[in-house]
Design goal:
It is built from 15 helices and 13 strands. The chain is an alpha/beta fold and 381 residues long. It has two domains: 119 residues, Rossmann fold (3-Layer(aba) Sandwich), CATH 3.40.50.2300; 239 residues, Rossmann fold. The strands form two sheets. Strands 8-9-7-10-6-11-12-13 form an eight-stranded mixed β-sheet, sandwiched between helices. Strands 2-1-3-4-5 form a five-stranded parallel β-sheet, sandwiched between helices. Helix 12 links the parallel strand 11 and strand 12. The structure holds adenosine-5'-triphosphate (ATP) and magnesium ion.
Length: 381
């Protein structure tokens, strides 16, 4: 797949306060890669790169202050492809680096092949890359519920429409529920092309491709749908999802990802790459238990970039709000009432929940949610 052959190895530099021997060993074992520099200090690395350029620079974020990391990425991003590496606890630092211009990220533990494939991928992209559109670096919000039917797709689609209507800039939504995606139904859209077609395209994603493959909703939201055919999802790797989201960032101001309920590698890749995660649940024990489990399995879901959205609350027989918050160890950021018939009618008639004609009383809550996301999006994380 790579345009680079073993005759012209990809030059790689490594910044790692811990010595980087493990990374160096992986690079040394791969004929298509050539280690040109290894440094423990950012200034030393930059001095060395001035003498010997590298196509890809691997930056281990350990021991780097957030400001140092961002200014390093900004300094290097036009001349080389930066890949940042860290622990799950470094998630917000890694995502800051990506927003500053790092081309990809890797979270430990990872396999040697993963490192090699990320290096190949960013090097290949830089061979053919076109400059990003001015000012483009979307705030990415993933919407996730480990329990089916909790309302993740409802929240994701209404959030995207609310963001678009609040003039938050270019808004896109990607249906990452690759098997049973419901974004098309929720927004009453169909499309010739889906996420599988985007992933199959070689080369960089320019604006024309985005216009061609995304379908535009009446609110202005650009929508990338999931495939209609079940089996196609199997061909999509988590790495490809991470790369796709990063490649889409320059084309949007806000990107909403609607995730599947499964806690699989694709969902994890999307959760990792997102700036914010909305965790959707309902006030019922099975839903709360599943969310608790997901938060235990992915500790970074408990940090400040995630917010709990409690759907179908209040509920007569449901768990009281205080107990929901106690069970999750988190405050509920926003609740949405159950509006049975109104929501179903809107869905069946193809109206957005924010369309006044749908008569959805909680429409303003989605506008509140859009404000929450837009306000947090501007924060230095
Ligand atoms: N607050 C609400 N009031 C009434 N109906 C709702 C509400 N929230 C969601 N629904 C309905 O519940 C159903 C499931 O919602 P949705 O598809 O958003 O859930 P999901 O978490 O994405 O589920 P899936 O597991 O299928 O991905 C849909 O028919 C939706 O219209
Ligand atoms: Mg869904």
């Amino acid at each position: 797949m790579s345009a680079t052959t073993v005759d012209t190895p990809i030059t790689v530099a490594v910044l790692d306060a811990g010595g980087g021997q493990e990374t160096a060993a992986i690079i040394a074992s791969e004929r298509a890669l050539k280690l040109v520099e290894i440094a423990a200090d950012p200034d030393v690395l930059c001095d060395q790169l001035a003498k010997h350029a590298a196509s890809v620079v691997l930056v281990d974020v350990r021991a780097l202050a957030s400001e140092t990391l961002v200014s390093l990425v900004v300094k290097l991003r036009d001349a080389t492809s930066v890949v940042v590496i860290g622990e799950p606890a470094d998630a917000s630092l890694l995502s800051r680096a990506v927003r500053a211009g790092a081309r990809s990220l890797l979270v430990r533990p990872y396999e040697a092949e993963e490192l090699v494939s990320v290096i190949r991928e960013v090097a290949e992209r830089s061979d053919t890359r076109t400059p990003a559109t001015a000012g483009g670096s979307a705030v990415v919000t993933a919407v996730y519920s480990p329990k089916g039917g909790a309302g993740a797709t409802t929240v994701a689609t209404a959030l995207a429409v609310a963001l678009s209507e609040s003039h938050a800039g270019r808004v896109g939504i990607v249906d990452l529920d690759l098997r049973f995606g419901g974004v098309g139904i929720a927004l009453d859209l169909r499309a010739q092309n889906t996420i599988v077609d985007v992933l199959a395209r070689p080369g960089p994603l320019d604006g024309a491709i985005v216009d061609d493959i995304f379908v535009t909703h009446g609110s202005g939201v650009k929508v990338l749908l999931a495939p209609e055919t079940l089996g196609l999802a199997d061909a999509v790797s988590p790495e490809a999802i991470g790369r796709l989201v990063q490649a889409l960032r320059p084309h949007f101001d806000h990107l909403v990802l609607d995730l599947p309920t499964s806690f699989d590698d694709v969902a994890m890749a999307a959760l990792r790459v997102a700036d914010h995660v909305l965790l959707v649940t309902t006030p019922e024990l099975p839903a709360l238990r599943d969310l608790q489990r997901a938060m235990t399995a992915a500790p970074d879901l408990r940090n400040g970039r995630s917010h709990v959205v409690l759907n179908r609350w209040p509920s007569r027989a449901g768990v009281p709000l205080a107990d929901v918050e106690r069970a999750l160890g988190r405050k509920v950021a926003l609740s949405l009432p159950s509006e049975g018939a109104t929501v179903t009618r809107a869905l069946n008639t193809g109206l957005s929940l924010l369309d006044r004609r749908a008569g959805v009383k909680s429409a303003s809550r989605f506008r509140d949610l859009a404000r929450l996301v837009a306000a947090n999006g501007g924060q230095q994380r």
